[in-house]
Amino acid sequence: MEIPQDLDNQIVQWRRFFHQNPEVSLKEISTTQKINEILNSFQIQTYSIGSTGICGMVIGENGITDTTVCLRADIDALCMEDQSNSTSRSMNPGVAHACGHDGHTAALLGAACLLQHNRSQFSGKVKLIFQPAEEICEGAKILVQKGEFDDIACTLGIHLMPTLEYGKICCADGPVMAGCDYFQIKVQGKGGHISTPHLAVNPLLAGAQILNSFQSIITQQFSPSEEILIGIGKFSGGTQYNIIPNEACMEGTIRYYNPKSQLHAQKAIRDMAENIARAYHTEAVIDFKEFTPPVINPGDLSVFGQSVAAEIVGKENVVVKFEKSLAGDDFAFYQQKAPGLYVKIGSANPDKPETWHPLHHPAFEIEEKALSIAARYYAEFALRYFR
Q1: Which pTM value belongs to this model?
Q2: Which domains does the chain have, with CATH numbers?
């Protein structure tokens, strides 16, 4: 594979641009415009996907085939402040690329350049999906519903990983990312003055007991070997210190691999919330939303992906067993339409502590040398698939 001069530096500059100009889910307008501008500079055909996504198509010139491989990068950022010390830190207050999507985008642009430059080496088509709204698990569903994956033979997604050292690639078989459910519980009571609690019904008290009791669901209702998580990330209620509010609200998530465990957890949450609320003379209203199923790599595609990784970083740097993540990714919806592989690219540098921060940390940073590895993996995966 021929590599255009200065491409590695260009990929880094793209990543820094996106890092400085993050946009949240379904508002990735300037991000998409920049991606389109770059793809057009390579003479790559593009078209809009969804309201804020974009797709590029690289067409091979070495024969004729209908086979289409899809390479996917997510492009959205998070609603949080960028607290890194980077010179390319976010210029948009309250928005930050703290999950590496800026790196995924830059790497896929690098792969686009590589594939367009080497299109005489393959037949078939490579669909470059720059997907919006991964962080809210909406983007993949939108694209699948619009038929973007009806003609796909194989799909690849990557994620930069701060728990994996730069220079290593993880291509594991089986479950690699968890299914993700969202739930909201509204505890409805009766407001009043804090000095006369007997004349009110405090939903905060019931809500606190519900939250604490959830900690026993995993330990008492599931096997210790079960891979499942129930977590609460938001608990709110009230407007002032001396007012008992009418309502308290909590929002949380279930992470799972086994669909039976998902249903068991939903039932346990509903039963516990409703019964505890009733004991405190309040009412719990529970709403569940299934955000994404688990990401599960097929065995044969994992072996293929490992061989591609060995070509790039050497067999000794290919990780085939890695701690499964209870984070979710809507790449799972692509896998329901076509064989799909989800690969983790090491982005931690032992000599740079800032690259050790976990995903979604306000000071999240990556070792930028990982970007060229990711770009080559994208491109080499497609090239080898066509051989």
Answers
A1: 0.93
A2: 7-177+294-386 (3.40.630.10), 179-290 (3.30.70.360)
- The helix-helix angle for 370-386 and 101-117 (nearest 10°) equals 50
Task: Give yes or no for residue 29 having a pLDDT over 80.
Answer: yes
- Amino acid of residue 286: I
First to last CA, the chain: 13
- The number of beta carbons lying within 10 Å of the beta carbon of residue 370 is 26
Angle in degrees, CA 80, 83, 86, rounded to 5? 125
Phi and psi for 204 in degrees, rounded to 5? -65, -40
Residue 322's pLDDT band, with cuts at 50, 70 and 90, is: confident
pLDDT band per the 50, 70, 90 thresholds, residue 33: very high
